[in-house]
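Workshop exercise sheet. Pairs work together: one partner reads the sequence aloud, the other fills in the structure field after running the prediction. Swap roles for the next sheet.
Pair: D.N. / O.F.
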Amino acid sequence: MFNTNSLAPPLAPNLAAELSQVSIEIDKIKEDFVSLCVKYQIVIVEGAGGLFVPLKGTSFLLPDLIKEFNLPVIIVARPDLGTINHTVLTVRCAKQLGLKIKGIIYNGFDINNLTLSEKTNPEIIEKMTNIPTLGKIPKGKDIDIDTCQIGNTLELIKNNVDFDLLLNNT
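Structure field:
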């Protein structure tokens, strides 16, 4: 795990940086990204809260970074009530912005108590958007950011994401 900027307040990056008296430098992020791409075959860039989250000021948003780095998008959505609207809006917006969407991963299923919406939402969204479901991840142990202990998160991802579809979906 690598962070060019690690900000403590759980806020949009531009505001967290301002409150932490830190400047988010896009050129530094790009430099770090390029060095990681040289070192690793696959580099995953995690967004922060959705497409329209401001990264620097209020004019440099997440889609600007995605375009700058020519990244495909994996949408991570919640599985429960309300996700159809939220996820379909995100997909349509991403498409309108010209972003390439690899697929959708649904995160946070309570596998012992699935609601009807959790059971049906991924299929409905896939039919509405023509974007494949890459995975359905059940709730797991919390990630401890301070110690970088990720509990069983990696195991949950390995066991619940279709990596063949992810890597071969063009």
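Discussion prompt: The helical segments are 13-19, 26-39, 62-69, 83-96, 116-129, 153-160, 163-168. What would you look at next?
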